[in-house]
Design a protein that fits this description.
alpha/beta; 9-stranded mixed beta sheet; 640 residues; 3-stranded parallel beta sheet; 26 helices
Length: 640
């Protein structure tokens, strides 16, 4: 039976909703760049519910108008404790612009998918407004935009290095990563009436700004190159990243310190990963799982529509892909929910009014890392590898897929569930490799067969990303031969079972290390495999990734060796164009690019020479004047 909700089941968003709860004062007010969806996949909702669970009065102002008289920033007054600021589930610049720096026409986190409801650099804009209006109220930053801009970072959209976001905003404190644990610790400290947020220096997983460096920190910290030094020498910026990434991959990292703009940014050690019980508590909070009723007449929120019938089963990723921010934000160590908690949420999904029996996804940052961790955690404690599976699968990593297979089977038996699909990307480098170097006892083949035969809705998505060994090395991704072996197995499974499913690969152009020849090879190889690529992306440099550092600095942080990168708009467009060799309107442009780069052999390999006909096309005379194929004998009449 569908549960009926009252407006008070959501966190309040207006003064009227605050008064309906009988409150005359708020402890915390959150500002978010996203529309308010009360669902555990939306960070602002999680933070609000965590604050509420600690006994505090919290409200949320979603997508405040920053262009008018700032009434949205004033309407709830000032909170007793602090303002919380987040850009939402995405960095606002990634949300706004394509890899070509073109303004996007839509926003998946806004009602009806309409763009224009959040500013560029949303965290900075919101914080500066709050500091101007309420200078005596502390501001706490969180979420992905603040987290990944916590130290000197390259900003692709302005094409320059920017200082840590506390320097820019003058906010009082930043909680980086998934912040429930440090947030609960912070809230407990407010029980002391003398406690002041703007004086906090010892909160785990936080960043603070200090005019001078405390002695106890100076003695144990890893001192990074200053922001000003990074501005002068890109190699120092690259060297900083290596230290930051290695620290993020350790169980017990050092405190990091960077001098910037006349002050010190101090990054405290992260909290230990959430235990299963702690993570379950986060997902068991009283979410309605629905957008706030204020959006009913404004259209659906696309990001919510996509995940409303899905369930997240874990956090973190030990893949360490160079272009990905997950490990820097969620952490390398997998934090798994219990089977009981997952099945409880599935039961809640089945009671949703629009649920028709089909679960769209049971996954996470990757589909198949649930419950995976080191066999001996004492070995993990000594490790600082960026990836547990590249260049090979760590012998200490438990890659047993059997618990996940059993979870899928139990999920399919929940009353009201007809089918459970897996929509998250599968890390097939956890499966037995074609070269036979898989860990003993690997159950990847069984898992893959289970997903293909029982949990695929016609299209299975995987991410080989490239075909070039050089580029894949830079990406920290497995050999393309691994993908080819996977494709063969997929097709045999489909043929044997009478299915007509598609294997959809994702690819990236212009990644550091990749030259035009590598893209031509990719186009040739995927053509031979029968693909006309759809799921493609030109590399977009985002703050705090290994690939972004290579893009800006021209150096690999590990060894500081020079790395070629397509940086100009023309270079990036030329590489991206090769994805679409199969479109006739691109043939002339691709031929020109290939000839200019001394790669004429690929004109033949891609079948795009003049007069080219695709296999299966009927060979008819072609009238170049009117573009129509004509049968034999018709030219004579046309000539008359």
């Amino acid at each position: 039976m569908t549960k009926q909700y009252d407006i008070k089941d959501w966190l309040p968003t207006t003064k009227k909703e605050v008064e309906q709860r009988g409150w005359d004062e708020l402890d915390v007010i959150l500002f978010s760049g996203d529309a308010y969806v009360d669902h555990p996949a939306f960070g602002a909702a999680v933070v609000g519910r965590v604050i509420e669970s600690e006994g505090y009065r919290v409200a949320i102002v979603p997508q405040p108008n920053w262009r008018d008289d700032l009434r949205d920033f004033k309407k709830l007054g000032k909170p007793r404790l602090f303002f919380g600021v987040t850009s939402g589930c995405m960095d606002s610049m990634v949300n706004h612009y394509t890899a070509n720096k073109r303004l996007r026409s839509d926003d998946a986190y806004s009602p009806d998918g309409k763009a224009g409801f959040r500013p560029d650099y949303a965290v900075s804009v919101y914080t500066k407004i709050l500091k101007r209006l309420w200078p005596d109220v502390p501001v706490l930053l969180g979420g992905i935009e603040a987290s990944l801009r916590r130290l000197t970072h390259y900003d692709y959209w302005s094409d320059k290095l920017k200082a840590g976001i506390l320097s820019d905003t003058q906010a009082d404190l930043l909680i980086y990563g998934m912040g429930e644990k440090p947030l609960r610790e912070l809230l407990k400290r407010f029980s002391d009436p003398e406690f002041k947020l703007n004086e906090v220096q010892d909160l785990p997983q936080s960043v603070f700004r200090a005019k001078s460096l405390p002695e106890e920190i100076k003695n144990e910290a890893e001192i990074l190159h200053t922001h000003e030094a990074c501005m002068r020498d890109k190699r120092l910026y690259a060297d900083n990243f290596r230290k930051i990434e290695e620290a993020s991959n350790r169980m017990d990292p050092p405190v990091l310190v960077q001098e910037s703009n006349g002050a010190f940014l101090v990054v405290n050690k992260p909290c230990p990963p959430l235990s299963t019980e702690e993570l379950d508590l986060v997902y068991d909070l009283p979410y309605t799982r629905l957008p706030h009723p204020k959006y009913k007449k404004r259209g659906e929120i696309p990001a919510y529509t996509m995940i409303r019938h899905s369930v997240n089963i874990h956090r973190g990723c030990f893949g360490g892909c160079s272009f990905c921010t997950i490990s820097m934000h969620q952490g390398k160590f997998i934090q798994s929910r219990s089977e009981a908690s997952i099945l409880r949420e599935l039961e809640a999904v089945t009671k949703m009014e629009d649920f028709k029996g089909y679960v769209s996804d049971l996954g996470g940052p990757s589909a198949n890392m649930w419950q995976m961790k080191g066999k001996e955690e004492s070995i993990c404690a000594l490790c600082k590898r960026s990836s547990c599976i590249f260049p090979n699968v760590c012998k200490n990593l438990n890659t047993n897929h059997k618990p996940l297979i059993e979870l899928y089977r139990k999920a399919g038996k929940v009353k009201g569930v007809k089918k459970v699909f897996i929509g998250s990307g599968i890390r097939y480098d956890l499966f037995p490799a074609p070269l036979g170097n898989a860990p003993a006892g690997n159950s990847g083949n069984e898992y893959f067969d289970e997903v293909v035969l029982k949990h695929t809705s016609g299209r299975l998505k995987v991410a080989p990303e490239h075909s070039s060994p050089i580029v894949l090395q830079m990406m920290r991704k497995p050999s393309f031969a691994h993908f080819e072996a996977l494709k063969t197995r997929f097709e045999k499974l489909n043929q044997r079972s009478g299915l007509r499913q598609q294997l959809i690969p994702y690819f990236i152009s212009s990644h550091p290390g990749g030259r035009l020849k590598d893209m031509a090879d990719l186009a040739m190889k995927t053509r031979k495999l029968g693909y006309r690529l759809e799921q493609v992306q030109d590399f977009t440099p985002t703050p705090m990734t290994h690939a972004t550092v290579m893009f800006h600095s021209g150096y690999d942080p590990y060894g500081l060796k020079p790395v070629y990168t397509a940086r100009s708009k023309d270079e990036k467009n030329e590489q991206r164009l090769l994805f679409f060799w199969y479109k006739a309107e691109n043939h002339a442009a691709i031929r020109k690019v290939l000839m200019q780069n001394n790669l004429p052999q690929y004109v033949k390999h891609l079948g795009i020479g003049s007069g080219f006909q695709r296999p299966g096309d009927r060979k008819k005379p072609f009238n170049k004047h009117d573009g129509k194929a004509r049968g034999k004998g018709q030219w004579k009449n046309k000539k008359k």
